[in-house]
Structures are given as structure tokens and as C-alpha cells.
Amino acid sequence: MTQLARLAGAPERPQPREAVASRRPRVAARTLWFAVAVVLALGAALASVALGTRVMGPGEVLDGLGGVLAGDQAGGVAQAAVEKRIPRTLLAVLVGAALGAAGAVMQGITRNPLAEPWILGVTPGASLAVVTGIAFFGLASPASYIWVAIAGAAGAAVFVYAVGSLGRGGATPLKLALAGAASSAAFTSLISAILLPRIDVMNQFRFWQIGGVGGADYARIGQVLPFLLVGVVLCLACARGLNSMALGDDVAAGLGQNVVLIRTLAGLGAVILCGAATAVAGPIGFVGLVVPHLCRLLVGIDHRWLLPASMVLGAALLTAADVVGRVVARPSEVDVGIVTAFIGAPVFIWIVRRTKLRAL
């Protein structure tokens, strides 16, 4: 019985005590690495509160947090800095977790090591939908951005998968990667074509196009949080089904899994996460590519561990990238989308050379 078959829920023969005992170190190692990821995420969050144009020491951070929690209306500079940075940190954590989980799910349902919201055109599709709505339909409500972005992400995902499925062999990793890259380029060009003649729209969203969490506030977080929760629940509910699909659609169906339903629900969850994250933070790439591959090295291929680990490590990566962007260009800042692209591009090249576009 292979590891994938066990993860997919296939019936097992009774195992000797030695085999059962040998699994305990694996569970302990996964738990340890997951705990390390949580610590990294917490450390990145604390750094995000402490670092910026004004660097604060631990004492100032604690004083500022105390003032915020106490509702002190006459707080000092430290409290004002903390109060401004907390929503930014929370948004970075939520968006990073959403993109990490979405990338892991997309790689699972396509069995494509290069599947990622940006590379498959899902994030640019959401961006195109938002910009189109603003330029031609007068969208102004942040809540409407989320719905439009989710619709654009869903349309882009269906389009790329349909194009990648044409011809002999169906949706192979190579065809999906090529279709996604071509679609991303086309969507990005259309965004530029819409924005260039409209100076007012371009000035309003030129920083949003790059991707960042600098304009975070509690109202935006409250608007996007229900969508992110729905997306996460859908993805986690399909974890065992994704394990079965790793064996192939025929084997998964033989194990009693409804392959079409699993692929639809998991894909819907990933699309909701991508669309909502893009609407609130702009198009941010490569988080969904880098994080799942790293998590597979740490916790293995079981999606019941992989998805939560991708969420935690995605939150840590995006928050840390936001901190780096604030520190390297102080007193100005580099948008987090640029930092993640700088990190993710070499990883993308490494994955291509290592996998040679084989399926997972």
C-alpha cells in the first residue's frame, strides 16, 4: 500500500506494530514543522507592527498595544503607529493565507507543479474584471469589488482550463502552464489598454495594480473576511478528495470519490480566495507557487496537513515581504507584490528545471 493510497482512504491490511510505530515520528515531525511555521508567522506579524518608517522597540510596541486595547484617546506616537500597523498586518496575514491555500489547491486539482493563481491567469483575470467594472460601470463600493473580482477569477480559471484541455492528451501540465502564461499576458495588456486613456482611474489604482496592503483598515478586513472563510472551508473540506485525485481520476473514482464534485468545490474555494484577496490587496503573484512546494518538503503531500501549513506559511511569507518592502526603501516603501515577485521568480525557474513540467 503506497503512501498516496493510504492518504486517499483506500482500505488497508492490518499493519504490524513496527509499521504503526514508524508513522509516529512522521506525525511528530509534521507537528514540529507546523509549529515552526506558526512561530514564523507570529514573528513576522510582530515585526510588521514594530518596523516601518519609525522603528519601535519591544517596550514601545507593548505600550502601544496596551493603549490600543485600553482605548486611550490621547495615546502617544507609539500607539498611533501600532494602531495604524495592526490592520495592515492583519490584512497581510489573511491575504497570504488565502493565496497559499489557493496555490496548494490549484496544484492538487490540476496535478501541475506550476499551478498558481498568477501563472494560471486567475489573479490577472480578477484584476481585469475589477478594472473593467470601475472604468465602464462605475464601481465604487469595495464590497462590489470582491464580487466582481471573484467572477473575473472564475471566468479566467474556466477559460484557461478549457484552452489547456484542447487537443490530444487533455489538460497536461505543459498546456495549462502555456495557456495560463498567455492568458496572464493578455489580461495584463487589456488592463493597461483600459487604464492608459483614463488618467483618473489609472491614478486611483496604479498602486493597487502592483499589489500591496498599505491601505488596510478594519472596514476592508470585515468586508473580505466572510469570503475568505467560505473559501477556506471549501478547500479544507476537499482535502481527502484531493489526496485521492493525486492517484489519478480513475483511481479516485474507484475509491468512491466524486471527482467532478471535488474538483468543482475545491476549484470554487480557490477562486473565491484568489478573487477576494485580489480585490482587497491587488494582484500579488508567486505566493501560491512558493509556499505549497516548501510545505510539501516540510509536512508531506497529505492535503490535510498541506493546506493548513500553506495557509500559515503563506501568511508568514507575505507579512515578511511587506516588512522587507517597508525597510529597504525607508522612508518610502516597495509594494509587497514587487517583493514577492523578486522572491518567486527564481523559485519558478528552479521548479521548471527540476520538474521539467511533469505532473505532481
What would you say about this model in short?
The chain is mainly alpha-helical and 360 residues long. 76% of the residues lie in helices and 0% in strands. α4 crosses α13.
Fold and architecture overview:
The chain has 360 residues and is mainly alpha-helical. It has 15 helices and no strands.
Number of helices: 15
CATH superfamily membership = ABC transporter involved in vitamin B12 uptake, BtuC
CATH topology, what is it called?
ABC transporter involved in vitamin B12 uptake, BtuC
The tally of structural domains comes to 1
Fraction in helix = over 70%
What is the assembly state of the chains in this entry?
single chain
Q: Determine and state the CATH class.
A: Mainly Alpha
Instruction: Give the ordered list of helices and strands.
Output: HHHHHHHHHHHHHHH
**Low-confidence spans:** 18-22
**CA-based gyration radius:** 21 Å
Pfam families: FecCD
Organism: Nocardioides nanhaiensis
Family: Belongs to the binding-protein-dependent transport system permease family. FecCD subfamily.
Main location: membrane
